[in-house]
Protein 1
Amino acid sequence: MENKISKNNKIDLNTEVSIAGLTFKNPVTTASGTFGSGMEYGDYVDLSRLGAVTTKGVSLLPWPGNPTPRIAETYGGMLNAIGLQNPGIDVFIDRDLPYLRSHDTKIIVNVVGKTAEEYCQVVERLSDCDVDMLEINISCPNVKEGGIAFGQDATRVEAITSQVKKYAKKPIIIKLSPNVTDISETARAAEAGGADALSLINTLTGMKIDIDRRKFLLANKTGGLSGPAIKPIAVRMVYQVANAVKIPIIGMGGIMTGEDALEFIMAGATMVSVGTANFINPMATEEVIDGIEAYMSRNQIYDINKLIGCVE
Amino acid sequence: MENKISKNNKIDLNTEVSIAGLTFKNPVTTASGTFGSGMEYGDYVDLSRLGAVTTKGVSLLPWPGNPTPRIAETYGGMLNAIGLQNPGIDVFIDRDLPYLRSHDTKIIVNVVGKTAEEYCQVVERLSDCDVDMLEINISCPNVKEGGIAFGQDATRVEAITSQVKKYAKKPIIIKLSPNVTDISETARAAEAGGADALSLINTLTGMKIDIDRRKFLLANKTGGLSGPAIKPIAVRMVYQVANAVKIPIIGMGGIMTGEDALEFIMAGATMVSVGTANFINPMATEEVIDGIEAYMSRNQIYDINKLIGCVE
Amino acid sequence: MSMAKKECIKVLHNERIEEGVYDLWLDAGDMATRAQPGQFLSLYCNNGGRLLPRPISICEIDKKSKRIRLVYRVMGEGTKEFAELKSGDFLDCMGPLGKGFTLEGKKALIIGGGIGIPPLLELAKQLTCEKDIVLGYRDATFLNKEFEKYGKVYISTEDGSVGRKGNVIDVIKENDLTADIIFSCGPTPMLRGVKEFALANKIKAQLSLEERMACGIGACLACVCQSKEVDHHTNVNNKRICKEGPVFYADEVII
Amino acid sequence: MSMAKKECIKVLHNERIEEGVYDLWLDAGDMATRAQPGQFLSLYCNNGGRLLPRPISICEIDKKSKRIRLVYRVMGEGTKEFAELKSGDFLDCMGPLGKGFTLEGKKALIIGGGIGIPPLLELAKQLTCEKDIVLGYRDATFLNKEFEKYGKVYISTEDGSVGRKGNVIDVIKENDLTADIIFSCGPTPMLRGVKEFALANKIKAQLSLEERMACGIGACLACVCQSKEVDHHTNVNNKRICKEGPVFYADEVII
Ligand SMILES: Cc1cc2nc3c(=O)[nH]c(=O)nc-3n(C[C@H](O)[C@H](O)[C@H](O)COP(=O)(O)OP(=O)(O)OC[C@H]3O[C@@H](n4cnc5c(N)ncnc54)[C@H](O)[C@@H]3O)c2cc1C
Ligand SMILES: Cc1cc2nc3c(=O)[nH]c(=O)nc-3n(C[C@H](O)[C@H](O)[C@H](O)COP(=O)(O)OP(=O)(O)OC[C@H]3O[C@@H](n4cnc5c(N)ncnc54)[C@H](O)[C@@H]3O)c2cc1C
Ligand SMILES: Cc1cc2nc3c(=O)[nH]c(=O)nc-3n(C[C@H](O)[C@H](O)[C@H](O)COP(=O)(O)O)c2cc1C
Ligand SMILES: Cc1cc2nc3c(=O)[nH]c(=O)nc-3n(C[C@H](O)[C@H](O)[C@H](O)COP(=O)(O)O)c2cc1C
Ligand code: FES
Ligand code: FES
């Protein structure tokens, strides 16, 4: 399938990165909620090529999510207000986890809850499961309780991080909200609470109005903005946070190509997630990996780790 | 030049809006810094068709601005770090003001400063000038002092608003920063300080990295993101602020067409500003006005004021 | 690895067949071989400002020449862009997607409304049983001649300009049409009417639903409809229109 | 009202003339009538993801047939898009913009480097005085044959594959070229060398500069260069390349 040159490149290039003692074959994972349980994209990409698969947010009990319409297209991006629909932790463990484990990739489970206790309960349930890391989503703008409410206040970020850490046997990633005055504050709070890594950014709160009907386009009124439109904000925040904390960062927000991913890596991200791009091109994750490798060969950079935070 | 139908429409449609006792022939003005001193666009549009012209930020003394590159293109938008280069208030009053006054449009002067005193001094100098309103820019992300530092903290917003109000003989608009956790807080602070109106949003702080050179694309590292990419965030913030304060709002952020402008109006804006769109289409301001009028005729809405905040 | 992918497909023909309605033939290769009536394609815009795919149902499948026909109405900027396609142009597509119609029954009633009519054409072609076809339009009609090959065609228009003035249910009642299976696609209010009619007359019905989509392949959960039973996949009362649908049995979903 | 506007212009011809370098003729109408050597056009992309105009200098003006020629190098996504234009396609443009070259002098030295060479062609054509032309390339040459009509052409290449190995200043010194006016366009390091040479030899010099642009018409202040004197417009030591330039006298600007 692969031609000789790319085979050779793979021998020459080191794309391995590590976070919290775990080694990932490359820095590319999927953004939570944009890749289903992985299964849906299994027909389009080889999941075993990915550094990790990050799952859709999973809660203790099944969540039905918000009424439709749940999404709206915007210029260079989209709004979503899915509302964290998910089948609950039991179905996740019984059905989705074995499927993901059958591939040679790391598994990052995105965790949501309505209360601090609920986050902890999900984390506890996952303690003995064969997953690699947990990503705590304290930044979803589309649910009334939990989510963003936790993520916009530094004191609460630190508190929930340290609570969750008590129950976790796996490294913890805290996913930060961009809807804040100073993201380095919440980042430092998560670090202080014991986070092993940070991921950013979640979506920016936005709105679209259907002027013909004079109504909100989304049933939920507001939704989270994602896609290439937000990339400059995300890159800035990754750079800002990389200069504020010592723990590694997973960067995301509008990554469509290997070049986009490299911006995040140069800004200070150890790994990157591909989100909305999956909807536009189901092969996006693999193409991002190809693009990073092509850049490395072209520029004779043999170790991806040399690029992390290298911007001047 | 104009055909009969559009002449007739003009008779039938009321596009007049008012803010702080002033009447504007239509709700469309220019976003500060994107329309020069008006002169540059005089060849492309009839300034007398605009509800108002909002000028580039003007300071007490001439400001040289930032080093180049000052701008970068991003997906569906752009970053700028002009750094408020301007010739100072004297040149503005001597040269730009008379030019603008020779047109049948209102004049809104955007005011910048490095300290509260400097804002007040500019406002004082403008007290006896023939201008209609002053827009206080406490939200520019591209200068070290003043600017955004004032605009991200509610206490400081209220303080500077009430200070400026002491020197002002004209209605005062406070221009809010979107780089905050909760824009309704700063909006309420400006209202409490005595602002006559609010304008929002200024640009969102962003960054672009030139991966080939592994350097920041902008000399200033970060810049302000504008253009259609940010529209959903801007519309959301206008809606949020409209529900938090009683004073009128001038909405902006990514308006390219009459349809875009109508989203802001329905979200609660009394007027709208066209910014980055001028660079993409120098006739954008007039086309936005045409688009609003066409929508009104098509939907048999004879008074634009009926549309303000009408979304459900 | 990849069996499915987003492909760049050649436009064979794109023509206006009615005010705002276009007829598009694609050189669809394998997509045509795999396609079933009632499935849809995700079409992507050329303009980089518009990123999400537009779902368009398959109107006809020509497996021999590997061609797929779509009939679409210009609604917004994306479909306006498609309307400008010329033979020889290329278009990014993905598909065929979703679960289409299940061919069944002894006497079928095919009920289409507006731009919901096109997906029923391939169904009518493949369905071998006896069938009546009821097509509802606002005013101008399209495709109705092509349906005549496959069954008796009844038409309603809102303004009465062609066929009966009224809606599809009026036509069905007026003509005492009956069946053991209904296939329907059209605007939601019409589908509600069809569901009600089917229930009242104890006729099994397959309905093709619509919702805004992002991924088109079941991953994002944008396109759900409410389901009667707790769905196996979602573990809540939701089904994905792009994956479990767009065609559902009337009693599976709440519309 | 509007005298100037953004226009949709027809592509007459678009051809690759060298690796990555394209030759584009536009049916420019009035733009051609008004154009001066050294001015530029703002070209807009079709892809809605890329909003800002690409400034491209005018290479040749055919006032009779109202055509304008541009020669450009593919650098990024925007110019890649232009490279795919075919005769008959349309392109959004604005112009002519900026202040071009002032035709003056008795003996001119025209010095171009790389993709800075094209804007000098129309200048060479319109300049009636005696002139030497020095063209510097990295490796492959282009347009040099066309310059031969207008003066003696000297060539340098970085790799020595054509002409002298080295840069334009090496060629000038080697051939003892002199003049009472220099016209130059090329990469900034070359322009610095030209400015230094002009100063050392007390020759007046006009230089065409480059900077990232947003408006292209003097409104946004994106494209400034540092000026020696406090500029009349800006009241600081800044001049706008899109408005007061792109052509400046060497002693006006700090490069
Ligand atoms: C399963 C399915 C099959 C369809 N089959 C057909 C068909 O055969 N012929 C036809 O003309 N139309 C069909 N539609 C509707 C068609 O998808 C929309 O009319 C089209 O997406 C509008 O795109 P636009 O860019 O012109 O409109 P815009 O309003 O500019 O689109 C903005 C966004 O909203 C989405 N959107 C807008 N309206 C709809 C809608 N009704 N359904 C889903 N998404 C929408 C668009 O896809 C896009 O993401 C189908 C929809 C679905 C879900
Ligand atoms: C006055 C002037 C005249 C020019 N004349 C020519 C010419 O005759 N032929 C030619 O090949 N090139 C010319 N250039 C350079 C040309 O504008 C850039 O190569 C082009 O804009 C790159 O666009 P892109 O989309 O391919 O690159 P990208 O890097 O993808 O562009 C991203 C953004 O950066 C801007 N940009 C990138 N490089 C430059 C640059 N060097 N100068 C200004 N903006 C840049 C683009 O306009 C765009 O806004 C000129 C530039 C200026 C300022
Ligand atoms: C449809 C959709 C669903 C999402 N669901 C989740 C989620 O369940 N948990 C979470 O932490 N983030 C969720 N996100 C946010 C993404 O993981 C990501 O942070 C964001 O979309 C920015 O990246 P992108 O621009 O590449 O999409 C979702 C985003 C989208 C578009
Ligand atoms: C090049 C540029 C210069 C700007 N200068 C100013 C300024 O001087 N004062 C100010 O208040 N806002 C300034 N802004 C912000 C705009 O007025 C506006 O708030 C912002 O660009 C969002 O609107 P838009 O997306 O329509 O451009 C500037 C924006 C741009 C793009
Ligand atoms: S569109 Fe994504 S699940 Fe259906
Ligand atoms: S590009 Fe705007 S001033 Fe020159």
Protein 2
Amino acid sequence: MAKPDNDSLFEAPPMAEQERMVEAILFATADPVSVTELTGRMPHGCDPAEALAHVRKRYAGRGVHLIRIGDAWAFRTAGDLGFLMQKETVETRKLSRAAIETLAIVAYHQPATRAEIEEIRGVSVSRGTVDQLIEMEWVRIGRRRMTPGRPVTFVVTQEFLDHFGLENARDLPGLKELRSAGLLENRPPPGASQLAGADDDEDDDDDDQVEMFEE
Amino acid sequence: MAKPDNDSLFEAPPMAEQERMVEAILFATADPVSVTELTGRMPHGCDPAEALAHVRKRYAGRGVHLIRIGDAWAFRTAGDLGFLMQKETVETRKLSRAAIETLAIVAYHQPATRAEIEEIRGVSVSRGTVDQLIEMEWVRIGRRRMTPGRPVTFVVTQEFLDHFGLENARDLPGLKELRSAGLLENRPPPGASQLAGADDDEDDDDDDQVEMFEE
Amino acid sequence: MTTDQFQEDTQSVSERVAAEALIVDVGAFEGPLDLLLMLSRTQKVDLRQISILALAEQYLAFVEQAKTLRLELAADYLVMAAWLAFLKSRLLLPPDPTEEGPSGAELAAHLAFQLERLEAMRNAAAKLMARDQLGRDFFTRGITEDVQRVRRVTYTATLLDLMQGYARIRTKDDFRPFTMDREAVMTMEQSLSRMRHLIGFAGEWTDIVSYLPEGWDLDPVKRRSATAANFAASLELAKEGKIEIRQGEVFSAIQIRKREPRDG
């Protein structure tokens, strides 16, 4: 097939050809590729979204799957074949319990401030814990909360979704149940605004934080 | 599908399953994989050679091919899709002032030698400037001047005329037209020209200059 | 209270060992909330039905034990103990309508919520980590091909650029700030090159004024410039030995003629 030309404005390559292109582009890289990037790289007039749907179907049940991560796509080996891949297994740094819990809190509550993480865990979060997650590129800094003090928030990244095989953060296991049980709410301690005595020492900052959210 | 077990010595996984394994291993391994290595990594009783043949067939005509490198196998982008692995960014820049002036002199005075260009511009013309114009195919080398040193001359090309929508170089507007189009500023030279007064005199002056350069 | 069981003087060796173990245990807790969650599990009920009063008593007993064993408890454990003691009194005493602040039941409900939420997040974290993970259970492409970034620069210009460029060159002199008016000024160099051509024909003594270029003798400004240039050029040519130069008397005409080679 001749090299498609960007000038061929009105004639996109046939869908079978577009599928081949999507395969080639996604096979060539380890990182997920967004639909936007596919559009940019494929000849003018192509419809990567449709081609992706076809390719996904084609690879269903194969040793390699097409998976979606946010608005990007990547080929990944089927999970049940991991046992063949001892050689490829990368030893990930063992995460501390604090780091794992912090990660989960960020994922389920995102965007989450440090104060919120601390309130849920009941202990202060060491700087190193969040730094480690950021360094692993599983967590990144999101927008600042539009509350007094404008605290930074943390959100999970595309790498996080990719690592855990999640299409998006809504696919987190048990998310719906947790939400309907009200466990993802930011429920302020009763009487938070009037706490002045001995009982607020435990999580002084948290109380302040919650007050902020109430505004 | 149940995880195949290395202990199932006497029952190899079905061929379809072996194909999936070959796919996954070849996909994930950083180097081409030999049949020996496949045999070592796949469950006992598998026939990687046959599985490879099936996989090769399956990927024939796809965006990635199974290819043989020595006695090892690997997936590779289909040759005709190599262009997708290049991301071409076209940047359009304005020609430099030096290049435009050089081009203008060639166009108005062609055939023009380098020495003539330099005399008119009043500065030396870098080799790169002329080379750039030649590379753009707006200027080409004309006949040598039949003067001592037999210097090469430069003339404008058909591409140049096409780009600027000119039928030939004589269509370029003359100085008078440039002036009436407001392109030549009528800024009176400091000093005595006020004595001379009329515009016509200035025109004459220009003509004189042209004569002077033509000598 | 059970504190009498832990009198120091009656402690057996095994009790001491148990106390050591407790020290380790305290270190294993991530703060009072974590400890409370562990204690609540001993109630063996759904966290939603947990008795906060019983939990408060368990916690206070734990802290009491630690004190008896002279274990150093971090400040936040003691703060929690104080808070739970306060909560306990609120829960036990009938509500006092004149008392400000949240009721004991409200405080207890919030603590229960905190415990349930912490446990939920722990379970979620466990589920997350139990998922297939990239690089452990599923894998990316091993042989990657980098996308080559090819940068192509095209240059462009318009006819306007071209004409403006040409106009700029041709009018360059106008913009040179200190350039003399070339219209009315003749330079020595111009005069010199002109006279070199003419001098070959000057066998006879000729007035220097007659060498003025055509037209330059009409405008006084031009004439002055050209005369001066011619004079300077004549001196230059005389110096080169090309011409001879003479002036009869002050202010009279300056005359030049070609110098014959044989005179040299």
